[in-house]
Amino acid sequence: MKTKSEFLSEAMVKLLNYRVEQEEFSSRVYLAMSIWLDDKGFSGATKLFKQYSDEEIIHANKAKNMLFANGIRPITPALKQPKQEFLSLTDVILSAMEHEKEITTQCYALTKAAHTEENFMVVELGLWYCKEQAEELNKVQYLIDRLETFGEEPSMLRELDEEMGELAA
Protein backbone atom coordinates (compact mmCIF):
# COMPACT_ATOMS: atom_id res chain seq x y z
CA MET A 1 0.00 0.00 0.00
CA LYS A 2 1.42 3.36 -1.04
CA THR A 3 1.69 6.23 1.39
CA LYS A 4 1.58 8.89 -1.35
CA SER A 5 -0.72 9.57 -4.23
CA GLU A 6 -0.24 11.72 -7.29
CA PHE A 7 -3.83 12.96 -6.86
CA LEU A 8 -4.02 13.51 -3.10
CA SER A 9 -1.70 15.86 -1.26
CA GLU A 10 -0.62 14.98 2.25
CA ALA A 11 -3.02 17.65 3.49
CA MET A 12 -5.91 16.00 1.59
CA VAL A 13 -4.99 12.58 2.96
CA LYS A 14 -5.00 14.06 6.46
CA LEU A 15 -8.40 15.72 5.89
CA LEU A 16 -9.91 12.52 4.46
CA ASN A 17 -8.63 10.48 7.39
CA TYR A 18 -10.10 13.13 9.70
CA ARG A 19 -13.43 12.78 7.89
CA VAL A 20 -13.30 9.00 8.53
CA GLU A 21 -12.59 9.65 12.21
CA GLN A 22 -15.35 12.22 12.61
CA GLU A 23 -17.97 10.18 10.76
CA GLU A 24 -17.14 7.13 12.87
CA PHE A 25 -17.29 9.30 15.97
CA SER A 26 -20.68 10.60 14.81
CA SER A 27 -21.83 7.00 14.61
CA ARG A 28 -20.77 6.52 18.23
CA VAL A 29 -22.49 9.76 19.29
CA TYR A 30 -25.78 8.59 17.81
CA LEU A 31 -25.32 5.08 19.16
CA ALA A 32 -24.86 6.53 22.68
CA MET A 33 -27.99 8.63 22.19
CA SER A 34 -29.90 5.57 20.97
CA ILE A 35 -28.82 3.53 23.98
CA TRP A 36 -29.82 6.31 26.38
CA LEU A 37 -33.19 6.68 24.64
CA ASP A 38 -33.78 2.93 24.79
CA ASP A 39 -33.00 2.93 28.51
CA LYS A 40 -35.56 5.70 29.03
CA GLY A 41 -38.31 3.95 27.06
CA PHE A 42 -38.28 6.05 23.89
CA SER A 43 -38.62 3.14 21.47
CA GLY A 44 -39.27 5.22 18.35
CA ALA A 45 -36.43 7.66 19.00
CA THR A 46 -34.18 4.69 19.78
CA LYS A 47 -34.79 3.27 16.30
CA LEU A 48 -34.27 6.63 14.60
CA PHE A 49 -31.00 7.40 16.36
CA LYS A 50 -29.74 3.85 15.75
CA GLN A 51 -30.50 4.42 12.07
CA TYR A 52 -28.55 7.69 12.22
CA SER A 53 -25.65 5.80 13.80
CA ASP A 54 -25.64 3.26 10.97
CA GLU A 55 -25.77 6.01 8.32
CA GLU A 56 -22.66 7.65 9.73
CA ILE A 57 -20.62 4.51 8.97
CA ILE A 58 -21.72 4.81 5.34
CA HIS A 59 -20.45 8.40 5.40
CA ALA A 60 -17.10 7.28 6.83
CA ASN A 61 -16.79 4.70 4.07
CA LYS A 62 -17.07 7.42 1.41
CA ALA A 63 -13.82 8.99 2.62
CA LYS A 64 -12.20 5.56 3.06
CA ASN A 65 -13.10 4.66 -0.51
CA MET A 66 -11.55 7.88 -1.81
CA LEU A 67 -8.33 7.02 0.00
CA PHE A 68 -8.36 3.41 -1.22
CA ALA A 69 -9.07 4.55 -4.80
CA ASN A 70 -5.83 6.53 -4.61
CA GLY A 71 -3.77 3.68 -3.18
CA ILE A 72 -3.78 5.02 0.37
CA ARG A 73 -4.75 2.84 3.32
CA PRO A 74 -7.10 4.76 5.64
CA ILE A 75 -6.15 5.08 9.27
CA THR A 76 -8.33 3.26 11.76
CA PRO A 77 -8.85 6.07 14.26
CA ALA A 78 -8.98 5.94 18.02
CA LEU A 79 -12.30 7.40 19.07
CA LYS A 80 -13.08 9.30 22.22
CA GLN A 81 -16.08 8.25 24.26
CA PRO A 82 -19.18 10.26 23.40
CA LYS A 83 -21.47 11.79 25.99
CA GLN A 84 -23.41 9.03 27.78
CA GLU A 85 -26.01 10.93 29.78
CA PHE A 86 -28.76 13.27 28.65
CA LEU A 87 -31.42 15.22 30.49
CA SER A 88 -34.35 14.43 28.21
CA LEU A 89 -35.45 13.62 24.67
CA THR A 90 -35.22 17.36 24.02
CA ASP A 91 -31.62 17.39 25.24
CA VAL A 92 -30.80 14.53 22.84
CA ILE A 93 -32.34 16.38 19.89
CA LEU A 94 -30.63 19.68 20.73
CA SER A 95 -27.31 17.86 21.23
CA ALA A 96 -27.77 16.24 17.83
CA MET A 97 -28.25 19.67 16.25
CA GLU A 98 -25.07 21.02 17.84
CA HIS A 99 -23.19 17.95 16.63
CA GLU A 100 -24.51 18.33 13.07
CA LYS A 101 -23.50 21.99 13.01
CA GLU A 102 -19.94 21.01 13.94
CA ILE A 103 -19.85 18.29 11.27
CA THR A 104 -21.19 20.75 8.69
CA THR A 105 -18.36 23.17 9.51
CA GLN A 106 -15.87 20.34 9.04
CA CYS A 107 -17.38 19.35 5.68
CA TYR A 108 -17.20 22.94 4.48
CA ALA A 109 -13.52 23.03 5.47
CA LEU A 110 -12.80 19.83 3.51
CA THR A 111 -14.58 21.18 0.43
CA LYS A 112 -12.87 24.57 0.66
CA ALA A 113 -9.42 22.98 1.03
CA ALA A 114 -10.07 20.68 -1.94
CA HIS A 115 -11.25 23.62 -4.02
CA THR A 116 -8.17 25.64 -3.06
CA GLU A 117 -5.94 22.74 -4.19
CA GLU A 118 -8.07 22.33 -7.32
CA ASN A 119 -8.58 18.69 -6.38
CA PHE A 120 -11.88 18.18 -8.12
CA MET A 121 -12.28 14.56 -7.03
CA VAL A 122 -12.27 15.66 -3.41
CA VAL A 123 -14.32 18.78 -4.22
CA GLU A 124 -17.05 16.45 -5.52
CA LEU A 125 -16.82 14.30 -2.39
CA GLY A 126 -16.87 17.42 -0.22
CA LEU A 127 -19.96 18.67 -2.02
CA TRP A 128 -21.60 15.28 -1.41
CA TYR A 129 -20.84 15.68 2.30
CA CYS A 130 -22.22 19.25 2.27
CA LYS A 131 -25.42 18.08 0.56
CA GLU A 132 -25.72 15.28 3.10
CA GLN A 133 -25.26 17.79 5.91
CA ALA A 134 -28.10 19.92 4.55
CA GLU A 135 -30.29 16.82 4.85
CA GLU A 136 -29.00 16.04 8.35
CA LEU A 137 -29.61 19.57 9.58
CA ASN A 138 -33.11 19.49 8.08
CA LYS A 139 -33.94 16.18 9.81
CA VAL A 140 -32.92 17.47 13.23
CA GLN A 141 -34.50 20.89 12.66
CA TYR A 142 -37.80 19.12 11.92
CA LEU A 143 -37.64 17.48 15.36
CA ILE A 144 -36.80 20.79 17.03
CA ASP A 145 -39.73 22.42 15.22
CA ARG A 146 -42.05 19.67 16.50
CA LEU A 147 -40.85 20.26 20.06
CA GLU A 148 -41.29 24.02 19.75
CA THR A 149 -44.75 23.70 18.21
CA PHE A 150 -46.25 21.05 20.46
CA GLY A 151 -44.25 21.37 23.66
CA GLU A 152 -42.55 18.94 25.98
CA GLU A 153 -45.46 17.60 27.98
CA PRO A 154 -45.25 13.80 28.41
CA SER A 155 -48.15 13.14 26.03
CA MET A 156 -46.51 15.28 23.34
CA LEU A 157 -43.14 13.58 23.83
CA ARG A 158 -44.85 10.21 23.49
CA GLU A 159 -46.40 11.29 20.20
CA LEU A 160 -43.06 12.63 18.98
CA ASP A 161 -41.38 9.36 19.98
CA GLU A 162 -43.94 7.42 17.95
CA GLU A 163 -43.43 9.73 14.98
CA MET A 164 -39.66 9.32 15.24
CA GLY A 165 -40.15 5.55 15.05
CA GLU A 166 -42.16 6.04 11.87
CA LEU A 167 -39.34 8.18 10.42
CA ALA A 168 -36.89 5.32 10.91
CA ALA A 169 -36.57 3.24 7.76
TrEMBL record:
Pfam families, A to Z: Ferritin
Q: Tell me one GO molecular function of this protein.
A: ferric iron binding
Residues forming the Ferritin-like diiron domain are 6-151
Family, as annotated: Belongs to the ferritin family. Prokaryotic subfamily.
Query: What is this protein identified as?
Result: Ferritin
Q: Which organism is it from?
A: Bizionia myxarmorum
